[in-house]
Protein backbone atom coordinates (compact mmCIF):
# COMPACT_ATOMS: atom_id res chain seq x y z
CA UNK A 1 0.00 0.00 0.00
CA UNK A 2 1.27 3.45 -0.85
CA UNK A 3 1.45 6.46 1.46
CA UNK A 4 -1.78 8.05 0.13
CA UNK A 5 -3.82 4.90 0.81
CA UNK A 6 -2.42 4.58 4.34
CA UNK A 7 -3.13 8.26 5.08
CA UNK A 8 -6.72 7.97 3.83
CA UNK A 9 -7.25 4.83 5.92
CA UNK A 10 -5.91 6.52 9.07
CA UNK A 11 -8.09 9.62 8.50
CA UNK A 12 -11.08 7.34 7.81
CA UNK A 13 -10.50 5.46 11.07
CA UNK A 14 -10.34 8.72 13.03
CA UNK A 15 -13.48 10.05 11.26
CA UNK A 16 -15.26 6.76 11.96
CA UNK A 17 -14.52 6.99 15.70
CA UNK A 18 -15.53 10.65 15.91
CA UNK A 19 -18.65 10.03 13.81
CA UNK A 20 -19.67 7.09 15.99
CA UNK A 21 -19.26 9.21 19.09
CA UNK A 22 -21.32 12.04 17.55
CA UNK A 23 -24.09 9.59 16.59
CA UNK A 24 -24.20 8.28 20.16
CA UNK A 25 -24.24 11.81 21.61
CA UNK A 26 -27.04 12.82 19.23
CA UNK A 27 -29.18 9.77 20.06
CA UNK A 28 -28.70 10.14 23.84
CA UNK A 29 -29.70 13.80 23.60
CA UNK A 30 -32.98 12.98 21.89
CA UNK A 31 -32.18 13.19 18.21
CA UNK A 32 -35.01 12.24 15.90
CA UNK A 33 -34.40 9.07 13.91
CA UNK A 34 -37.22 9.79 11.49
CA UNK A 35 -37.68 13.08 9.68
CA UNK A 36 -40.87 14.55 8.25
CA UNK A 37 -41.02 16.32 4.89
CA UNK A 38 -41.07 19.69 6.69
CA UNK A 39 -37.94 18.76 8.60
CA UNK A 40 -36.14 17.82 5.40
CA UNK A 41 -37.23 21.04 3.70
CA UNK A 42 -35.89 22.98 6.65
CA UNK A 43 -32.63 21.09 6.51
CA UNK A 44 -32.12 21.56 2.78
CA UNK A 45 -32.90 25.27 3.04
CA UNK A 46 -30.14 25.55 5.59
CA UNK A 47 -27.45 24.04 3.34
CA UNK A 48 -25.67 25.14 0.18
CA UNK A 49 -27.99 22.81 -1.78
CA UNK A 50 -30.86 25.26 -1.21
CA UNK A 51 -29.26 27.41 -3.90
CA UNK A 52 -29.97 24.70 -6.50
CA UNK A 53 -33.20 23.18 -5.14
CA UNK A 54 -35.11 26.31 -4.08
CA UNK B 1 50.14 -51.13 -35.95
CA UNK B 2 50.78 -52.56 -39.40
CA UNK B 3 49.08 -51.57 -42.63
CA UNK B 4 47.00 -54.79 -42.79
CA UNK B 5 45.45 -54.14 -39.38
CA UNK B 6 44.84 -50.47 -40.34
CA UNK B 7 43.03 -51.51 -43.54
CA UNK B 8 40.84 -54.09 -41.78
CA UNK B 9 39.86 -51.60 -39.03
CA UNK B 10 39.18 -48.90 -41.64
CA UNK B 11 37.04 -51.36 -43.59
CA UNK B 12 35.01 -52.11 -40.47
CA UNK B 13 34.59 -48.42 -39.59
CA UNK B 14 33.32 -47.67 -43.11
CA UNK B 15 30.66 -50.40 -42.92
CA UNK B 16 27.81 -47.93 -43.39
CA UNK B 17 29.17 -46.65 -46.71
CA UNK B 18 27.93 -48.19 -49.99
CA UNK B 19 30.23 -51.05 -51.13
CA UNK B 20 31.61 -49.12 -54.15
CA UNK B 21 32.57 -46.11 -52.05
CA UNK B 22 34.05 -48.26 -49.32
CA UNK B 23 36.21 -50.32 -51.69
CA UNK B 24 37.39 -47.12 -53.41
CA UNK B 25 38.44 -45.61 -50.08
CA UNK B 26 40.13 -48.82 -48.90
CA UNK B 27 42.01 -49.31 -52.20
CA UNK B 28 43.22 -45.69 -52.00
CA UNK B 29 44.84 -46.40 -48.61
CA UNK B 30 46.20 -49.79 -49.83
CA UNK B 31 47.97 -47.94 -52.66
CA UNK B 32 49.16 -45.33 -50.18
CA UNK B 33 50.77 -48.05 -48.00
CA UNK B 34 52.30 -49.84 -51.02
CA UNK B 35 53.94 -46.57 -52.10
CA UNK B 36 55.19 -45.80 -48.57
CA UNK B 37 58.73 -46.86 -47.72
CA UNK B 38 58.09 -47.49 -44.00
CA UNK B 39 54.78 -49.18 -43.20
CA UNK B 40 54.57 -48.25 -39.49
CA UNK B 41 55.64 -44.64 -40.01
CA UNK B 42 52.89 -44.21 -42.64
CA UNK B 43 50.32 -45.60 -40.18
CA UNK B 44 51.49 -43.20 -37.45
CA UNK B 45 51.29 -40.31 -39.93
CA UNK B 46 47.67 -41.12 -40.84
CA UNK B 47 46.44 -41.50 -37.27
CA UNK B 48 43.85 -44.02 -36.08
CA UNK B 49 41.73 -45.81 -38.73
CA UNK B 50 38.53 -44.67 -36.92
CA UNK B 51 39.46 -40.97 -37.24
CA UNK B 52 40.32 -41.50 -40.93
CA UNK B 53 36.96 -43.26 -41.39
CA UNK B 54 35.17 -40.39 -39.66
CA UNK B 55 36.77 -37.88 -42.05
CA UNK B 56 35.75 -39.98 -45.05
CA UNK B 57 32.19 -40.31 -43.79
CA UNK B 58 31.94 -36.57 -43.21
CA UNK B 59 33.20 -35.86 -46.73
CA UNK B 60 30.82 -38.44 -48.13
CA UNK B 61 27.65 -36.75 -46.96
CA UNK B 62 27.88 -35.06 -43.58
CA UNK B 63 27.26 -38.39 -41.93
CA UNK B 64 28.83 -39.05 -38.53
CA UNK B 65 30.49 -42.20 -37.29
CA UNK B 66 27.26 -43.43 -35.71
CA UNK B 67 24.32 -42.06 -37.70
CA UNK B 68 22.20 -45.17 -37.21
CA UNK B 69 20.95 -43.94 -33.81
CA UNK B 70 19.82 -40.56 -35.19
CA UNK B 71 18.19 -41.41 -38.51
CA UNK B 72 15.31 -43.62 -37.38
CA UNK B 73 13.94 -41.12 -34.83
CA UNK B 74 12.37 -38.54 -37.23
CA UNK B 75 10.21 -41.11 -38.99
CA UNK B 76 7.97 -42.04 -35.99
CA UNK B 77 7.85 -38.37 -34.96
CA UNK B 78 6.61 -37.42 -38.40
CA UNK B 79 4.05 -40.20 -38.25
CA UNK B 80 2.85 -39.01 -34.83
CA UNK B 81 2.64 -35.43 -36.10
CA UNK B 82 0.59 -36.50 -39.11
CA UNK B 83 -1.69 -38.55 -36.86
CA UNK B 84 -2.13 -35.60 -34.52
CA UNK B 85 -2.89 -33.32 -37.47
CA UNK B 86 -5.53 -35.72 -38.79
CA UNK B 87 -7.04 -36.03 -35.31
CA UNK B 88 -7.07 -32.25 -34.93
CA UNK B 89 -8.86 -31.79 -38.25
CA UNK B 90 -11.39 -34.54 -37.56
CA UNK B 91 -12.00 -33.41 -33.98
CA UNK B 92 -12.32 -29.73 -34.91
CA UNK B 93 -16.13 -29.61 -34.44
CA UNK B 94 -15.65 -30.95 -30.90
CA UNK B 95 -12.51 -29.28 -29.57
CA UNK B 96 -12.99 -25.85 -31.10
CA UNK B 97 -16.32 -25.01 -29.36
CA UNK B 98 -14.97 -26.48 -26.11
CA UNK B 99 -11.84 -24.34 -26.43
CA UNK B 100 -13.92 -21.23 -27.12
CA UNK B 101 -16.23 -22.00 -24.18
CA UNK B 102 -13.36 -22.61 -21.74
CA UNK B 103 -11.46 -19.48 -22.80
CA UNK B 104 -14.64 -17.37 -22.67
CA UNK B 105 -15.41 -18.70 -19.17
CA UNK B 106 -11.90 -17.93 -17.94
CA UNK B 107 -12.02 -14.48 -19.49
CA UNK B 108 -15.42 -13.75 -17.95
CA UNK B 109 -14.20 -14.89 -14.51
CA UNK B 110 -11.27 -12.48 -14.70
CA UNK B 111 -13.50 -9.64 -15.93
CA UNK B 112 -16.07 -10.40 -13.20
CA UNK B 113 -13.39 -10.30 -10.47
CA UNK B 114 -12.14 -6.92 -11.71
CA UNK B 115 -15.72 -5.63 -12.14
CA UNK B 116 -16.69 -6.60 -8.57
CA UNK B 117 -13.67 -4.75 -7.17
CA UNK B 118 -14.36 -1.72 -9.39
CA UNK B 119 -18.07 -1.72 -8.37
CA UNK B 120 -17.08 -1.75 -4.69
CA UNK B 121 -14.69 1.16 -5.35
CA UNK B 122 -17.44 3.17 -7.09
CA UNK B 123 -19.97 2.40 -4.32
CA UNK B 124 -17.35 3.57 -1.81
CA UNK B 125 -17.04 6.82 -3.77
CA UNK B 126 -20.84 7.18 -3.64
CA UNK B 127 -20.87 6.62 0.11
CA UNK B 128 -18.11 9.19 0.53
CA UNK B 129 -20.07 11.83 -1.44
CA UNK B 130 -23.25 11.00 0.55
CA UNK B 131 -21.25 11.33 3.78
CA UNK B 132 -20.03 14.82 2.79
CA UNK B 133 -23.62 15.83 1.99
CA UNK B 134 -24.80 14.49 5.37
CA UNK B 135 -22.08 16.45 7.18
CA UNK B 136 -23.29 19.63 5.43
CA UNK B 137 -26.90 18.78 6.31
CA UNK B 138 -25.79 18.06 9.90
CA UNK B 139 -24.34 21.58 10.27
CA UNK B 140 -27.61 23.00 8.92
CA UNK B 141 -29.61 20.81 11.32
CA UNK B 142 -27.67 22.17 14.32
CA UNK B 143 -28.92 25.65 13.38
CA UNK B 144 -32.40 24.81 12.01
CA UNK B 145 -33.64 21.81 14.01
CA UNK B 146 -31.89 20.95 17.25
CA UNK B 147 -28.26 20.37 18.31
CA UNK B 148 -28.98 16.70 18.99
CA UNK B 149 -30.35 16.16 15.46
CA UNK B 150 -27.43 18.08 14.02
CA UNK B 151 -24.84 16.01 15.90
CA UNK B 152 -26.59 12.78 14.92
CA UNK B 153 -26.58 13.73 11.22
CA UNK B 154 -23.01 15.02 11.44
CA UNK B 155 -21.89 11.75 13.04
CA UNK B 156 -23.76 9.68 10.45
CA UNK B 157 -22.15 11.73 7.71
CA UNK B 158 -18.69 11.23 9.16
CA UNK B 159 -19.20 7.46 9.54
CA UNK B 160 -20.58 7.14 6.00
CA UNK B 161 -17.81 9.31 4.56
CA UNK B 162 -15.10 7.39 6.42
CA UNK B 163 -16.41 3.99 5.35
CA UNK B 164 -16.87 5.23 1.78
CA UNK B 165 -13.38 6.74 1.54
CA UNK B 166 -11.76 3.62 3.00
CA UNK B 167 -13.75 1.32 0.69
CA UNK B 168 -13.01 3.45 -2.36
CA UNK B 169 -9.27 3.68 -1.70
CA UNK B 170 -8.81 0.02 -0.73
CA UNK B 171 -10.83 -1.28 -3.68
CA UNK B 172 -9.08 1.03 -6.12
CA UNK B 173 -5.75 -0.23 -4.75
CA UNK B 174 -7.00 -3.82 -5.06
CA UNK B 175 -8.05 -3.24 -8.70
CA UNK B 176 -4.64 -1.77 -9.53
CA UNK B 177 -2.85 -4.64 -7.75
CA UNK B 178 -5.09 -7.51 -8.86
CA UNK B 179 -5.55 -6.68 -12.55
CA UNK B 180 -1.97 -7.34 -13.80
CA UNK B 181 -1.61 -10.76 -12.06
CA UNK B 182 -5.07 -11.86 -13.20
CA UNK B 183 -4.42 -10.84 -16.81
CA UNK B 184 -0.89 -12.34 -16.73
CA UNK B 185 -2.26 -15.57 -15.27
CA UNK B 186 -4.83 -15.81 -18.05
CA UNK B 187 -2.20 -15.10 -20.72
CA UNK B 188 0.18 -17.70 -19.22
CA UNK B 189 -2.65 -20.23 -19.12
CA UNK B 190 -3.27 -19.62 -22.83
CA UNK B 191 0.46 -19.94 -23.59
CA UNK B 192 0.91 -23.14 -21.57
CA UNK B 193 -0.05 -25.72 -24.28
CA UNK B 194 2.26 -24.07 -26.81
CA UNK B 195 5.14 -23.94 -24.29
CA UNK B 196 4.80 -27.68 -23.62
CA UNK B 197 4.99 -28.42 -27.33
CA UNK B 198 8.16 -26.33 -27.61
CA UNK B 199 9.80 -28.29 -24.77
CA UNK B 200 9.03 -31.61 -26.46
Key structural traits:
heterodimer, A: about 55 residues, mainly alpha, 3 helices, flat, B: about 200 residues, 7 helices, about 85% helix, about 0% strand
What does this structure look like?
The complex is a heterodimer of chains A (54) and B (200). Chain A has 54 residues and is mostly helical. Chain A is 72% helix and 0% strand. Chain A has helices spanning 3-28, 37-45, 50-53. Chain A is flat. Chain A starts with a helix and ends with a helix. The mean pLDDT of chain A is 80. By secondary structure, chain B is mainly alpha-helical. Chain B contains seven helices and no strands. Chain B has helices spanning 3-13, 19-35, 39-46, 49-61, 74-90, 92-144, 147-199. Chain B is rod-shaped and about 130 Å long. Mean pLDDT of chain B is 82; it is low at 63-71. The chains are: A mainly alpha (54), B mainly alpha (200). Chains A and B meet through helix 1 and helix 2 of A and helix 6 and helix 7 of B.
Please outline the helices and strands.
The complex is a heterodimer of chains A (54) and B (200).
Chain A: H1 3-28, H2 37-45, H3 50-53
Chain B: H1 3-13, H2 19-35, H3 39-46, H4 49-61, H5 74-90, H6 92-144, H7 147-199
Helix pairs in contact in B: 1-2, 1-4, 6-7
Oligomer: heterodimer
Approximate shape of chain A: flat
Kindly name the structural category of chain B.
mainly alpha
Mean pLDDT over the residues of chain A? 80
Summarize the structure.
The complex is a heterodimer of chains A (54) and B (200). Chain A has helices at 3-28, 37-45, 50-53.
